[in-house]
Amino acid sequence: MSPTNDPVALLDLAPQNASVAAELRAAFDRVLQSGAFILGSEVETFEAEVARYIGVKHAFGISSGTDAILLALMALDVGPGDEVIMPPFTFFATGGCVARLGAKPVFVDIEPRTFNIDVSRIEEKISARTKAIMPVHLYGQTCDLEALRELGARRGVPIIEDAAQSLGARSKQFAAGSAGAFGCYSFFPSKNLGALGDGGLLSTNDDALAKKAKLLRAHGAEPKYYHALIGGNFRLDALQAAFLRVKLPHLDSWTAARRGNAALYDQLFAEASLPLELLRTPQRVYEGHVYNQYIIRSSRRDELAKHLRAQGIGCEVYYPVPLHLQQCFAYLGEKAGAYPQAESACQQVLALPIYAELGHERLRHVAQTVVELLRR
Predict the structure, then answer these.
(1) 145 Cβ partners below 8 Å, 6+ apart?
(2) Looking at the whole model, is its pTM more than 0.85?
(3) What CA–CA distances, in Å, run from 174 to 24, 102, 108, 281?
(4) What percentage of the chain exceeds 70 in pLDDT?
(5) Is the preceding peptide bond at 319 cis, omega within 30 degrees of 0?
(6) N or C terminus: which one in the chain shows less Cβ crowding within 10 Å?
């Protein structure tokens, strides 16, 4: 059976992990023999390595990307009565962490090219209660960090970058996670740099915030059993840090392969000459796009997704419901139509396979299947 007749997963981690299997096993043995499984030198070494990769002064291994966001908010003392500005088109954790602390998510619509927050519309939502602005660098591309950084500095509002999908991405001047008070990353296995379990990272260039975040990461205790602050248990396991240390040196080559796959998709879909209403490919506004997902838009999205799955081709909707229409946020009083760009994206976006090991033959098969359906 030819590869193009085989199922094509949205993401297949097996080839990537197989390529570094010997190193992963050696990392496991190293941690096993050390007997140090929580924090310790393995985590500290990874933190130093990934801080250099991002280009920041401080990086802390965290238990998950969600906990990284929560910790950043806690370090900025976000709590009841405060507001945090964010896009409504994002993974739930962005808004969930804010609400969990008793603060109010305040939404700003996205701009349709990148699916990221429309920075030009943020200032009108800033109030005396605004404690932070939290952009999301969705799908592997940053928002307009230059404009956002200027706005934050001018209005005195700190920025927490939700860079869960964008390790290694860049805007014109900044690496994702390096422009604000904090950068928050996820190492969920499906991410471009994925652990073999949950994991995350918090980055900052601010020495005082770094000291506070580090304290909060381990129940606010310094020294042990003496608690200056009420923190949490947000520690990255030594084993996951060891696995991430194996993968980090390969990240740039994996990113290059993703970009190559995206370029081939772009070419094949351009050659199909379909109306933009039926097929719109992702806009690469910044060269630093790392394509955590390859997202197309189509007015026939649901029909297309059903067809692809029937053909054994993996696809996924990231995300079907914007935050302001989620049941748990009904208390905010937001109505359908409030954020039309986000709502339109929820109705049209579809992720196609883009992982580094996909291969051009399977990619062409995916593209051909998409085009055949949309031409009917």
Answers:
(1) 135, 161, 171, 172, 173, 174, 176, 179
(2) yes
(3) 31, 31, 22, 25
(4) 99
(5) yes
(6) N
Q: Identify which of 210, 280, 197 has the alpha carbon closest to the alpha carbon of residue 240.
A: 197
Amino acid sitting at position 353? P
Q: Which tokens go with 102?
A: 């008793």
pLDDT in tens, 324-371: 999 999 999 999 999 999 999 999 999 999 999 999 999 999 999 999
Alpha helix stretches (DSSP H) within the chain: 14-19, 21-34, 41-54, 65-75, 93-100, 145-155, 207-217, 238-247, 251-272, 301-310, 340-348, 360-375
Task: Specify the residue for token string 């401080």.
Answer: 58
Residue 2: what pLDDT?
39
Q: How far is CA 316 from the centre of its chain?
A: 15
Torsion angle defined by CA atoms of residues 226, 231, 236 and 237, in that order, rounded to the nearest 10 degrees: 50
Q: Give the whole-angstrom CA distance, residue 61 versus residue 47.
A: 6
Q: What is the rounded CA–CA span in Å between residue 13 and residue 151?
A: 40
Distance CA 244, CA 231 (A): 25
Task: Indicate the SS3 state at residue 109.
Answer: coil
Rounded-to-integer distance, Cα 8 and Cα 351, Å: 13
Describe the strand order of the beta sheet including 182-186 as a list of residue ranges: 58-62, 200-204, 182-186, 160-162
Quote the mean pLDDT of the chain: 97
